[in-house]
Sequence to fold (225 residues):
Amino acid sequence: GQNIDQPTEMTATEGAIVQINCTYQTSGFNGLFWYQQHAGEAPTFLSYNVLDGLEEKGRFSSFLSRSKGYSYLLLKELQMKDSASYLCAVADSNYQLIWGAGTKLIIKP
Amino acid sequence: ETGVTQTPRHLVMGMTNKKSLKCEQHLGHNAMYWYKQSAKKPLELMFVYSLEERVENNSVPSRFSPECPNSSHLFLHLHTLQPEDSALYLCASSQDSTEVAHNEQFFGPGTRLTVL
Fold:
């Protein structure tokens, strides 16, 4: 079967750094997405990785290792507005997105 | 604003009611999606339309009936639902649905559905 695993909840301090991990087992791989979803709002796109390595975009970076079936989202200089759920999704061999259950990130002052 | 709107935002219905959810995208995309989001569970893909034709139906119960009259509008007709159908129903759109790897999906705010 296809499976995406990510921690259910994480807590971090304002101004710190946090890494949210995602491991996947899918039938084929056509890229990995990270989305952010604030409570009561729509998920919004953060990043896309299809090749191994680190993609940096401002305070957010996303890393991919295809051989390990592993990705992480790195958030630096955390702000209170970063409190949200972070969803990992993989495009399988049919280009269909397989979603993780999301990681709820709580930022404390 | 993501360019995808959904109405209503909240809906409470009895098990014998018939209601419809509406989604509209203003992005010129060719593909539209219905997802079900339950607490602490992964997004569940329900239906995919590409150029107004249904290309994916992930074994969704027949009490959910989609309709895509054109590439900008998508409906989800509901009838004789069960309490376990209570969830957030999200609509999304993307440039295309097939053979496009970097195919970012844009989501609407969702309809919070409660079935009594």
